[in-house]
Write a structure and sequence with these properties.
Chains A, B: Belongs to the peptidase M32 family. The structure is a homodimer. By secondary structure, chain A is mainly α. Chain A folds into two domains: 92 residues, no CATH class; 331 residues, Neurolysin, domain 3 (Orthogonal Bundle), CATH 1.10.1370. Helix content of chain A is 63%, strand content 3%.
Chain lengths: 498, 498
Amino acid sequence: MDTYLIEKDFKNLLKEQASYREAIMLAHWDMSTKIPKNGIEQRSEVVGFLSEKLHQIETSEKMKYFIDVLKDSTENEVMKKTIEECEETYERNRKIPNQEFKEYVMLQTKSESIWQEARENADFSLFQPYLEQLVDYNKKFANYWGYEDNIYDALLHNFEPGVTTKTLDHVFPELRKSLTSLMDKINGSTHKPDASVLTGHFPKKDQEAFSVEVLKRMGYNFTSGRLDETVHPFAIALNRNDVRVTTRYDEKDFRMAVFGTIHEGGHALYEQNINSELINTPLATGTSMGIHESQSLFWENFVGRNKAFWESHYELFKSHAPAHFQNVPLDDFYRAVNEVKPSFIRIEADELTYPLHIMIRYELEKALINGEIKVKDLPGLWNEKMNNYLGITPPSDKEGVLQDIHWSGGDFGYFPSYALGYMYSAQLHNTLTQEINLDEIITKGDFNQLRNWLTKNVHQYGKMKKPLEIIEDVTKEKLNPEHLVNYLMKKYSSIYQL
Amino acid sequence: MDTYLIEKDFKNLLKEQASYREAIMLAHWDMSTKIPKNGIEQRSEVVGFLSEKLHQIETSEKMKYFIDVLKDSTENEVMKKTIEECEETYERNRKIPNQEFKEYVMLQTKSESIWQEARENADFSLFQPYLEQLVDYNKKFANYWGYEDNIYDALLHNFEPGVTTKTLDHVFPELRKSLTSLMDKINGSTHKPDASVLTGHFPKKDQEAFSVEVLKRMGYNFTSGRLDETVHPFAIALNRNDVRVTTRYDEKDFRMAVFGTIHEGGHALYEQNINSELINTPLATGTSMGIHESQSLFWENFVGRNKAFWESHYELFKSHAPAHFQNVPLDDFYRAVNEVKPSFIRIEADELTYPLHIMIRYELEKALINGEIKVKDLPGLWNEKMNNYLGITPPSDKEGVLQDIHWSGGDFGYFPSYALGYMYSAQLHNTLTQEINLDEIITKGDFNQLRNWLTKNVHQYGKMKKPLEIIEDVTKEKLNPEHLVNYLMKKYSSIYQL
């Protein structure tokens, strides 16, 4: 059979994978937004079944055959990268014995529901035995996959290929030092914002109307997407022509919905603007968790929490908001939405304390995987670090070590990508502002230039480029946490008159 | 391997089928309710792919093995019926050569979009060549499947197993004669209802509030379902714990939403109340289109269009309805929602003219499949029959032969089940009213007794019983159109004072 025909068969197999992926994504979206309660149990099994079918294709002999035959014979760049991606998935998955993989999948499902119970009851001991097993499996898998310096690197690779413990241990302490020193200054400031002006009854439908308007202005395409309500906001791509966002409405505090929607809108713009040539390949999605987060955080922080944004959107906001906002001056409003205040819950943290939450989780999971600490000691260690880094101690494990779902799904190595995404976004911001007067276009409320810049430099590539390749190609330098520090210093010095 | 282990493997295969089915149903539901426009194209391919996978299992060697081994060795009644169902599906599907099946699936997809275009443009000639091919394939398939008397029986079997052309040709003319004679009398009546009292601006959210309330009273379980809005209302069962209904709101005329919701609610009650032992088998769904329709029509007509229903629900209705209904007396209202008036569109037809729409379609498709008429002559023949049976001629093919989607999907033999369902419902009604004072419980607004009766006699069985088996077991007689005629005679004699 000649290469052309083999490529054709290979593309059919890729399309099958894409079909399974869409069915799985839809099942997840529905489970988080629309499913009636009694449908959940059966649905979990459907998702498990479809995921297994996808996994079977990824690790099939057929896949191996295509990889071997096409690897060196194709000239097409997309095909080359596709093969690379498939090969990596094939190799990594094949290294895990089938029996262990099945046991692990069962453990994941079970652990998630146990974690939920443990969190609700603020009882870590319920979750502990499951977490111990999850850590053990991840250590085993990390050894199967292999690593150079640190076993944790093997896990990091799943979420941020190319980034290692060495990189993180270089940038994180530097970042922490700067953030802590900045926070100390802020604590001593006598010019603090008053966030109490932000609360008050704000009906859901008005928050929704404003959120939809902002999404439209960002360039989110509602003909290829939709906005729904969930407990935990997310963006999900069924394919680039069907990218859905969700948000959460708190009628007492609009910040969750407004900044949450902008954040998820940033993720969605990434997926909607991937090059259409990549459709039906495994490259048709964001290249890593970190780069994805760089896009959502760019919109949330550099746009949404920017004074220029409120200069152009405060009137629109007030037209939807409760009457008392009429008496809140723009400057007070802007400073209030940027209040820095150590808090227990990561996803509710402000721009400045956010990275500290991530570092705590990173340090703990790295130590866990390296066998330096024990699962049973996590609650104590978590509280100790919270106290050291943020100066506060969670009232219970519910607001502490049990708050996030990730570990219950066995996702170790995921957290750093949140802080990385933040640093990426600041580094991209630094380059972008040399080319575009960002504040000016934001003040005008015209986001086309910004979105086009992001599409040209980031979105379009999907997985054609690795995370650090994107950062280095665009910014002409390696990962550099100084840009984030500089941005925060400048912004918060002004807000707190430091 | 002993039978126990083989049964276990077989059950796993059935579960895989159920998973594919749920994924397909969810994809369909989403396509009709939530999907953004640009997602449709890709989604159609996903549905096609998943359907093919399901079809592969149904016709697999593995399936054949299980059928052969388990057929005579199992004592369990559910397992026996499951095997029978699987065998029938296997045999029927295997009779169609793979290549022809694939071509046919492609033709179906294409034809549906062409039909939509043809309908929008009221241009039958666009659709004609596709319909010709669809008829040819159905003739071929009918011959593969085999039949005794009439080739059309082989198609009828797909939707109403056990019912034949012979039965239909016996009951339909009888029914038509009675209906036509009743209509003649109605036309001559001087005591006609005034339906104009029913119209006026009725906001969607108020119609929705009333519809939801009625569904709840019917016993539709919202913890295992949900109500959404669509262009074409439907009920869909992902599994018995996730049965969703949709409705359409016309703000000028509430009848579409209210009677449509009750109708779909009737379908949904059937699926929600199938015995839980049948979960994950192919028996866990309605036994035929006709029996399904008997349930939806029972609720729509014998409950929803019943005077007793409005005696107990008119106050509730008025609390949601526009103010002018305060001035419409109950009796005028009741008579207005039961107005008989020949109309072009089947799904908007009244109780009395509805079966005539079905008979026209039945007569035409039977003649088509028997080669007695040609596709190109359909528009003329349709209009001729409309004129003969209903005394009106559609202004264009859009309101005529092109109005229904079924033929574009190759569904020949489907239409009779609508009229059969109607006759079934009247026959069930006749038996039920001998055991239960239906008007009394409806007047009380307590539907539990009714729903329990339907569950006990119909719902619970799923596909454990064939359609006519259900009718004969419950009513102790064969299909008898007299019950429908008697019901209509009595009801409309009173409304029109004949």
